[in-house]
Specification:
Blueprint: H1 2-16, H2 40-54, E1 55-57, E2 63-65, E3 72-74, H3 75-87, H4 91-103, E4 114-116, E5 121-123, H5 128-145, H6 153-167, H7 195-204, H8 208-228, H9 267-278, H10 281-297, H11 321-330, H12 337-349, H13 356-369, E6 394-396, E7 403-407, E8 413-417, E9 423-428, E10 433-437, E11 444-451, E12 457-464
Helix pairs in contact: 2-13, 3-4, 3-5, 3-13, 5-6, 5-7, 7-8, 9-10, 9-11, 10-11, 11-12, 11-13
Length: about 475
């Protein structure tokens, strides 16, 4: 009896730390291209190097990410680290990074942007990209491990999203502020714009209208900036006003914020996520512009430099992961498989293990390129009347060995259509997540049709291995 009790306790302990999606997820996105030469081992190798070189343990189970000056940590790095560790299913590191974040918040409950080692604020107040990445990572953590353990990821994500809404979105304009204490219509940073996250936040907090407006404003600002400054491709400026014009408040930044350098370089990556996850048409247009700039104007990924004027002339001299990888992500929406494969190989072959920024971003980019930076499928969707064409619907895992989950509004009708065009399964959903078992079916590509009572529908693909 005693042995049985010990076994039961051990099982329950293991169960509490069970994860929904071990690495690698190997998701095939419903939109865009995937590199044919992708390999999740590349992403894992990058992660292992990143963790060995930039993660440091503090006391009391906290972890920090080393900045360029190794004795410093910036909130951006904690956000990046939370994304990487949650998608790697590295719970110990994820929890430690989040606890470190919470140890160093200001009065608005967002992390002070620069910390001296394990404690001691150097740079006060928030940097919005860190909050966005941390909030998305918490939502994925709630999916990965649930929220019944020592950390309630769901409530923490909800609180952080509320802080972003209240302090880092300009009131009445939906402009993303670059921090909780500055910015808005007079100065913003396009490389912080994360419209895919906003769509997730909207469903997670049942605040879809607000967050969709923030997403729409992001594209308005980006397009204004490109048009006003006669930009080539997707070369947005590092900083700008909401009107798209250069900001008079950006004088302290590189080139007055008027060029495409180490801030703006991340924009193609963030926007590509919106196309890959949600098929957004604005995201598609932007990623294709960015990809075509490299493929056509530059003659390929190998010619990328680390900085451009908006007219496309190079001002940088280095070929590194920050720029190469973001453009490789854009190539996932660029409609040219050969260019994407070449871009992936170019990024893979870059080795900058000692560079905090270049290697961290290379690792994040490689997660997306290999299908390991995926849409968290358990975000809360509102019930009742819904427009299926505007709803968020995901399938996970995809490809699948036999079972997969459809995440869709309640009261949807799910139809599974075989490769030969026959409806082999149909059911009405009673919850947001519905498991479908195709264990008795042959391998191939199946169509999953999700419809509402108004006979509107959307169709997704799932690959049965």
């Amino acid at each position: 009896m005693k042995n049985l009790l010990l076994i039961t306790v051990a099982f329950l302990c293991l169960k509490s730390y069970a994860q929904k999606q071990p690495f690698p997820a190997n998701v095939v996105f419903a939109n865009g291209l995937m590199p044919t030469n992708k390999n999740s081992q590349d992403a894992k190798n990058n992660y292992d190097i990143w963790k060995a070189n930039f993660v440091e343990a503090c006391s009391n189970e906290r972890y920090r990410v080393k900045f360029d000056n190794s004795w410093e940590t910036v909130s951006e790095g904690i956000g990046y680290g939370m994304l990487l560790s949650v998608y790697m299913a590295d719970k110990t590191l994820f929890d430690g990074l989040w606890l470190y974040y919470k140890d160093n918040v200001n009065g608005n409950k967002v992390m002070n942007w620069k910390i001296n080692g394990c404690s001691g604020t150097i740079g006060q107040n928030g940097a919005t990209d860190a909050e966005l990445d941390a909030a998305l990572a918490l939502i994925v953590a709630d999916y990965q491990w649930g929220s019944t353990g020592n950390i309630n990821y769901k409530s923490d994500a909800t609180a952080l999203i509320s802080a972003i809404k209240n302090y880092e979105i300009e009131a009445n304009t939906f402009v993303l502020k670059p921090g909780d204490q500055f910015g808005g219509s007079q100065i913003t940073n396009p490389s912080y714009f994360s419209p895919a996250y906003y769509r997730v936040f909207g469903t997670f907090t049942n605040d879809v209208t607000f967050w969709n407006q923030v997403a729409a404003k992001s594209y308005t600002i980006i397009n204004n900036n490109l048009i006003q400054n006669n930009a080539v491709g997707g070369l947005v400026s590092d900083w700008c006003e909401a009107s798209g014009a250069y900001s008079s408040q950006a004088g302290g930044y590189n080139n007055g914020g008027k060029t495409y350098t180490y801030d703006a370089a991340r924009t193609p990556w963030r926007i590509a996520v919106d196309y890959l996850w949600f098929g957004n048409v604005d995201a598609k247009a932007y990623t294709k512009k960015s990809s075509d700039f490299v493929r056509v104007n530059l003659g390929g990924s190998s010619n990328i430099k680390d900085g451009y004027n908006q007219n496309g002339t190079a001002i940088g001299q280095w070929h590194n992961g920050t720029f190469v990888g973001a453009f490789a992500c854009a190539a996932m929406g660029g409609d040219n498989q050969m260019h994407l494969d070449t871009s992936y190989a170019d990024l893979k072959n870059l080795s900058e293990p000692g560079s905090y920024f270049n290697h961290t971003l290379k690792t994040l980019y490689s997660f997306l390129l290999t299908g390991n930076f995926y849409f968290p499928p358990t975000t809360t969707l509102s019930t009742g009347d819904f427009d299926i064409e505007k709803s968020t619907v995901t399938l996970f895992p995809n490809p699948s060995a036999n079972r997969f989950t459809v995440n869709a509004p309640q009261q949807s009708t799910i139809s599974v259509i075989s490769p030969s065009g026959i409806v082999i399964h149909q059911q009405k959903t009673t919850a947001e997540n519905t498991e479908i078992n195709l264990a008795n079916q042959s391998s191939g590509v199946y169509l999953i049709k999700i419809s509402n009572d108004d006979f509107k529908s959307i169709t997704k693909k799932v690959i049965l291995k």
